[in-house]
Design a protein that fits this description.
The complex is a heterodimer.
Chain A (H helix, E strand, L loop, with lengths): L3 E4 L2 E4 L5 E7 L6 E7 L5 E8 L5 E2 L8 E7 L2 E6 L8 E8 L8 E3 L3 E5 L1
Parallel strand pairs in A: 2-11
Antiparallel strand pairs in A: 1-3, 3-8, 4-5, 4-9, 5-6, 7-8, 9-10, 9-11
Chain B lengths: L8 E5 L4 E6 L8 E7 L6 E6 L2 E4 L4 E4 L5 E6 L8 E8 L11 E6 L1
Parallel strand pairs in B: 1-9
Antiparallel strand pairs in B: 2-7, 3-4, 3-8, 5-6, 6-7, 8-9
The chains are: A mainly beta, B mainly beta.
Chain lengths: ~120, ~110
Amino acid sequence: GAVVSQHPSRVICKSGTSVKIECRSLDFQATTMFWYRQFPKKSLMLMATSNEGSKATYEQGVEKDKFLINHASLTLSTLTVTSAHPEDSSFYICSAAISGRMPDTQYFGPGTRLTVL
Amino acid sequence: LAKTTQPISMDSYEGQEVNITCSHNNIATNDYITWYQQFPSQGPRFIIQGYKTKVTNEVASLFIPADRKSSTLSLPRVSLSDTAVYYCLVGYSSYKLIFGSGTRLLVRP
């Protein structure tokens, strides 16, 4: 149980294009999902907290107009990197917390490797 | 948010028991302690979670003293496949988790 999937697992795009990454909780409902970014040999950096049916809360320094987050249902959150540039190349990871269970442990997806040419 | 401090790296040999200690001096009353394992180019994998005393599952044990200002992850009889980065996190109730640098464990033959 508590499986989180991400799609795609890796994507290569040209500079200036937009890329959408999906995060799904496969066997549980998640009121809250989180998006992280990780650079090589570095730790995970929280980008935003996404609550179903409401606007995401972004961490300081994360551009909300560049990283669009939509949490339309209790099992799906999407991150869209708009007008991607090479500096956006990174490993993007989502996590989901099980609704209604205490403690509400976060379970992580396998990550999406984004390469912007 | 409770800040955590862990050793940056540890070395061990196959078959040994590995104990990784995490310091979290300003842990809040409602905070749980959770440990994750991460391999390169993969998302973190949940290992174990606890609030106080001792928790054991099929892969690890978690020891938490009464003051809860630290915790120790114990991996019995490690193998080469346990080489990974281990993160200790403290938090509560779907609140955001802040990852520290983690501990890079290298298991040698």
